[in-house]
């Protein structure tokens, strides 16, 4: 499996399960309706676990442009490979969201709250304040990338000499716990995108697919879950470069 394919599949699985748990909790008529924030955060953590477990051996399982940028900025990943990984991640995120729409299509049809429908696909703030919102995304992503940088050790992929570094190299379970911790502790302000591919691609799918009671896709907010995570990743990389892991 190529790096592009692995990142596409991994991010697709991440969003399929992550947006899927939001749909299960929030849309009308599902078995999980109104089961709450704890279920959503656990679901997202397990989504990360599953995606990393599947593709970690192939690409390092970045499954997040902020991870790719953070690793590259810290000198832990080739800068030349960044566009390939990010392209695969955005496409995978969009495909995962499309599959969620297909899977829960009948439940989307009977859900009338426009904000609830958008919330399945993309994040949004509880209190809209751009400075506060981007700060939340910066700090949440800083925690994630700091964990990746300090916990991850390079590993040799297969029998070749090529080193794959990313979420897959620190194991699926620790990463799942980190994402769950961010969601439980810091996710209440913006919905903790902490991953541009998890938000931008699915937001585009929300714009494109036919949903009976769909509202606007809130493109005015869409830059925050992209810029915030990248800034958080760069901040984590600066800290790592100042105090690198032994």
Q: Can you put this structure into words, describing what you see?
A:
With 246 residues, this protein is mainly α. The chain has a single domain (3-242), classed as Up-down Bundle (Glycerol uptake facilitator protein). Helix content is 65%, strand content 2%. It contains 10 helices and 2 strands. It has a two-stranded antiparallel sheet. Helix 2 packs antiparallel against helix 8. The relative contact order is 0.19.
Gist?
The chain is mainly α. Helix content is 65%, strand content 2%. It has a single domain (3-242), classed as Glycerol uptake facilitator protein (Up-down Bundle), CATH 1.20.1080.10.
Structural class assignment: mainly alpha
CATH class: Mainly Alpha
CATH architecture: Up-down Bundle
Largest sheet: 2 strands, antiparallel
Whole-number total of structural domains = 1
Q: What is the CA-atom radius of gyration, in angstroms?
A: 17 Å
């Amino acid at each position: 499996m190529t790096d592009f394919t692995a990142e596409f599949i991994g991010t697709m699985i991440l969003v399929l399960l992550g947006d899927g748990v939001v749909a299960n909790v929030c849309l009308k008529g599902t078995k999980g309706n109104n089961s709450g924030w704890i279920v959503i955060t656990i679901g997202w953590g397990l989504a990360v676990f599953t995606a990393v477990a599947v593709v970690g051996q192939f690409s390092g399982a970045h499954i997040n442009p902020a991870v790719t940028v953070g690793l590259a900025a810290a000198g832990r990943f080739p800068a030349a490979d960044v566009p390939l990984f990010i392209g695969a991640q955005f496409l995978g995120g969009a495909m995962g969201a499309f599959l969620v729409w297909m899977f829960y299509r009948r439940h989307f049809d009977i859900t009338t709250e426009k904000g609830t429908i958008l919330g399945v696909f993309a994040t949004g703030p509880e209190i809209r304040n751009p400075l506060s919102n981007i700060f939340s995304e910066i700090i949440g992503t800083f925690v994630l990338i700091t964990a990746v940088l300090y916990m991850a050790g390079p590993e040799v992929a297969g029998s070749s000499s090529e080193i794959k570094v990313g979420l897959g190299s620190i194991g699926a379970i620790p990463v799942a716990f980190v994402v769950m911790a961010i969601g439980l502790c810091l996710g209440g302000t913006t919905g903790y995108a902490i991953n541009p591919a998890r938000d931008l691609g699915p937001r585009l799918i929300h714009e494109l697919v036919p949903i009976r009671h769909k509202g606007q896709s809130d493109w005015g907010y869409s830059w925050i879950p992209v810029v915030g995570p990248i800034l958080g990743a760069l901040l984590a990389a600066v800290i790592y470069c100042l105090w690198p892991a032994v």
